[in-house]
Amino acid sequence: MHPHTPATLGPVFDSPHPVSAAHTVVALPGTGSDADFARRAFEPACIARRLGVVAVEPDPTAVVASYRAALDAAAAAGPIVVAGISLGAAVAIEWAAEHPDRTVGVVAALPAWTGPDTAACPAALSASATASQLRADGLDAVIERMRAGSPPWLADALTQSWRSQWPNLPAALEEAADYKWPGTERLGTLEAPTAVITAVDDPVHPFAIAEEWAALIPHSAIRRITLADLGANPAILGHTGFAALPHL
Q1: How far is CA 131 from CA 122, 152, 157, in A?
Q2: CB-based contacts of 99: which residues, under 8 Å, 6+ apart?
């Protein structure tokens, strides 16, 4: 199948919670990322659909706890749409599975792994290695190396977020490296309509993982993009994800 051809695995049923302009999309960044990137990824699609958006700024001393606290706070006003990137997608899935009555839908972008055994997870290995380098060499040296090996859009985004999370960035990366990703049983219990978005040429977030998630989540659709697509316009995550959920 051509990488840009959308494929759907399983029907995407209407949510039991009809979406209205009063609903909020909570956007969770990936490892080492920030609210600014999550906002750019999802806010344009929210504006187009007259949905509110909360882009969560991670607490680098307690990343997952800060995500879950933001989800709880937003859902206190009514059911929400949960959108996450990488680590944020994992937390989105976990929270939505635990709160089916408070979840309208899920957009899980760039999933990195399935299950608690992350010894071979590229994202976990990258986060752990970067944390070690930061502790050994300091922020400026690691940013310089990162920029030399990254496309400009990613280098600029990470430079901004890494500097904002310093000096707690190594702890945030270590937390991400130790995170136990949702397993097959958890993915199978997710009731909310879910869009899984994969960048087919992203080695850190393998395409096969996204396919596995979409096959396991009962009411899911998988959509394919490329890293060039994402770099040209991060808003492709929101537009692509929401388009896969007919009730949004």
Answers
A1: 14, 21, 17
A2: 71, 75
Q: Does domain 24-116+181-243 have CATH number 3.40.50.1820?
A: yes
N- to C-terminal Cα separation, the chain:
27
Bond from prior residue into 29 cis (ω within 30 degrees of 0): no
Provide the edge-to-edge strand list for the sheet that holds 52-55.
Answer: 52-55, 24-28, 80-85, 103-109, 194-199, 220-225
The bridge status of strand 24-28 relative to strand 80-85 is parallel
Structural element, H or E, at residue 83: strand 80-85
Sorted by where each begins, the domain ranges of the chain are 24-116+181-243, 122-176
Mean pLDDT by 10 residues, the chain (248 residues): 36 43 86 98 96 97 98 96 98 98 97 97 98 98 98 98 98 98 98 98 98 98 98 98 88
pLDDT digits (tens, 9 = 90+) for 186-220: 999 999 999 999 999 999 999 999 999 999 999 99
- Amino acid found at 59: D
- pTM of the model as a whole: 0.91
Q: Going by C-beta distance under 8 Å and a sequence separation of 6 or more, which residues neighbour residue 144? A: none
